[in-house]
């Protein structure tokens, strides 16, 4: 299974959440609302979740093993960094 598309929507307001991402697998299946979060040890992703009746948040969709989670996180964070770099270039060009 390959990730065939990654779409990053930066969050403009201040806070720990930096972006919301959608990823597409094999150009056939998409997962929306993956969050890029700034934590104490750097950036990480949080899978889409919803609040359960007991008040806890549960992932709606998530990788089954740590290797897949790491691969998804690496691809998303690379794309996020690329978006930030493109934004910097555009800001420099506009000045």
Automatic annotation (TrEMBL):
Keywords attached to this entry: Cell cycle, Cell division, Septation
Family matches, as InterPro entries: SpoVG, SpoVG_sf
Transmembrane domains' residue ranges: none
Annotated signal sequence range: none
GO terms, biological process: division septum assembly; sporulation resulting in formation of a cellular spore
Function: Could be involved in septation.
Family: Belongs to the SpoVG family.
NCBIfam families: PRK13259.1
Listed name of the protein: Putative septation protein SpoVG
């Amino acid at each position: 299974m390959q990730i065939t598309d990654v779409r990053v929507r930066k969050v403009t307001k201040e806070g720990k959440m930096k972006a919301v991402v959608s990823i597409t697998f094999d150009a056939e299946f998409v997962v929306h609302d993956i969050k890029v979060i700034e934590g104490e040890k750097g950036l990480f992703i949080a899978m889409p979740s919803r609040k359960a009746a007991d008040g806890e948040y549960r992932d709606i969709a998530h990788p089954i093993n740590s290797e897949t989670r790491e691969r998804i996180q690496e691809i998303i964070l690379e794309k996020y960094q690329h978006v930030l770099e493109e934004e910097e270039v555009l800001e420099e060009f506009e000045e």
